[in-house]
């Protein structure tokens, strides 16, 4: 059956029932669910129906969303605290400007919980979705399968998944963390450091930081110690002192008097332990943290790379809303946007200056 024939049957069925489901259409037309979703997307772009989670409902160009209309947009993130607090605030502020409503789901970095939150948020009939998945880059194929099962426009936040792991490309807005790593290492180099210790926690961000670290080392001519030691963020773990000492001992043996530590909590705890061992900050040890959530509150205020968290939420939400409010047949092109972090210099690196960029 040709696409025009399928489209006619889909519209005829919609006029009869008022709402369609992908699974039912797939069985009725004898084609795959992917083909049905593609047909619905084309008809949605033409303003002949409106796609919703699991299928489509009737609409017309005149009834389409417009500036100031009460759209409902879903946002699913791994956490509602620390890093994602500002991301959510940014998305909420932009939704308010457009007169849209934001519905939040939090996964707690649990993949199974994330699926439940997605189903609940999509089940209320949101027009589009902002998503920061708990799945990392090493599980790109699984992310792609999950994304391809969502029947509303999706904008990824702080993630970058797409073709060939997914059926199609997806809009994304993310921090250029590789640039952030280079920003920190260049600052160290400007202070005369040529041997630098690196400690990254296990996170999606670490993948991008490693890229920037490798590029910076080659460009700037610096030697790096990338430590396998897992640093504790807090002091409750009985092995805390041993872990902190292991990393400090590594850096001392390597001759590294500068450290880039992801994230703030780990860096703050490390500075405390270094001072307990008699080291002066920054005279004996220069430290830059990554994230700038609580860096300014450390015992020694930490110089930190600051991702544009608020702007991530604002930009992603505006990108989604513009796509949802586009005129029928004029859907905006898919966009991959990278926003640059800044460096906030404080006492811990020994160079209290204005915000720097290479």
What oligomeric assembly is this protein in? single chain
Individual helix count: 11
Q: What is the level-2 CATH architecture name of the largest domain?
A: 3-Layer(aba) Sandwich
The percentage of residues in β strands lies in 15-25%
* H-E string: HEHHEEEHEHEHEEHEHEHEHEEHEE
Distance between the termini: 57 Å
Adjacency order of strands in the biggest sheet: 5-4-6-7-8-14
Please describe the biggest sheet, giving its number of strands, its sense, and whether it closes into a barrel: 6 strands, parallel
The shape, in one word, is elongated
Number of strands: 15
Helical residue percent band: 40-55%
CATH topology of the largest domain: Rossmann fold
Mean pLDDT: 87
User: In terms of structural class, how would the helical and strand content be classed?
Assistant: alpha/beta
Which residues sit in consecutive blocks of at least 5 with pLDDT less than 50? 60-69, 353-358
Structural overview:
- Mean pLDDT is about 85; it is low at about 60-70 and about 355-358.
- This protein starts with a helix and ends in a 14-residue tail after the last strand.
- The chain is elongated.
- Helix 8 links the parallel strand 9 (about 195-200) and strand 10 (about 225).
- The strands form three sheets. The protein has a six-stranded parallel β-sheet, sandwiched between helices. Strands 10-9-11-12-13-15 form a six-stranded mixed β-sheet, sandwiched between helices. It has a three-stranded antiparallel β-sheet with strand order 1-3-2.
- The chain has about 350 residues and is α/β, with parallel strands linked by helices.
- Helix 4 packs parallel to helix 11 and helix 9 (about 240-255) packs across helix 10 (about 265-275).
- Helices cover about 40% and strands about 20% of the residues.
- The protein contains eleven helices and 15 strands.
- It has three domains: about 5-65, Winged helix-like DNA-binding domain superfamily/Winged helix DNA-binding domain (Arc Repressor Mutant, subunit A), CATH 1.10.10; about 70-175 and about 310-340, Rossmann fold; about 175-305 and about 345-350, Response regulator (Rossmann fold, 3-Layer(aba) Sandwich).
- It has helices at about 5-15, 20-30, 35-45, 85-95, 110-125, 140-150, 175-190, 205-220, 240-255, 265-275, 310-325; strands at about 20, 50, 55-60, 70-75, 100-105, 130, 155, 170-175, 195-200, 225, 260, 285-290, 305, 335-340, 340-345.
């Amino acid at each position: 059956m040709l696409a025009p024939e399928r489209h006619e049957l889909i519209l005829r069925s919609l006029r009869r029932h008022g709402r369609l489901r992908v699974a039912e259409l797939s069985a009725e037309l004898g084609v795959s669910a992917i083909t049905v979703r593609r047909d619905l997307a084309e008809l949605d772009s033409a303003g002949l129906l409106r796609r919703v989670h699991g299928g489509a409902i009737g609409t017309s160009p005149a009834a389409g969303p417009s500036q100031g209309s009460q759209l409902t947009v879903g946002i699913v993130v791994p956490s509602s605290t620390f890093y994602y607090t500002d991301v959510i605030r940014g998305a909420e502020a932009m939704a308010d400007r457009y007169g849209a409503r934001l519905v939040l789901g939090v996964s707690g970095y649990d993949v199974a919980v994330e699926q439940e939150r997605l189903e609940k948020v999509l089940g209320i009939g949101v027009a589009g979705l902002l998503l920061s998945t708990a799945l990392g880059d090493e599980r790109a194929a699984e992310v792609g399968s999950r994304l391809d099962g969502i029947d509303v426009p999706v904008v990824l936040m702080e993630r970058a998944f797409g073709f060939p792991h997914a059926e199609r490309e997806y809009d994304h807005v993310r921090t250029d963390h590789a640039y952030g790593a280079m920003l920190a290492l260049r600052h160290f180099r400007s202070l005369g450091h040529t041997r630098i210790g690196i400690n990254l926690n296990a996170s999606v961000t670490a993948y991008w930081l490693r890229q920037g670290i490798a590029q910076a080392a080659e460009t700037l001519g610096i030697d790096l110690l990338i430590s396998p030691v897992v640093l504790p963020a807090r002091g409750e773990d009985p092995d805390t002192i041993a872990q902190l000492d292991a990393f400090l001992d590594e850096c001392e043996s390597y001759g590294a008097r500068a450290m880039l530590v992801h994230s703030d909590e780990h860096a703050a705890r490390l500075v405390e332990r270094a001072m307990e061992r008699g080291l002066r900050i920054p005279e004996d040890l220069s430290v830059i943290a990554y994230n700038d959530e609580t860096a300014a509150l450390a015992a020694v205020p930490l110089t930190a790379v600051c991702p544009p968290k608020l702007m991530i939420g604002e930009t992603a939400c505006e990108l989604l809303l513009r796509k949802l409010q586009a005129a029928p047949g004029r859907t905006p092109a898919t966009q991959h946007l990278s926003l640059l972090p800044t460096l906030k210099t404080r006492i811990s690196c020994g160079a209290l200056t204005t915000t720097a960029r290479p």
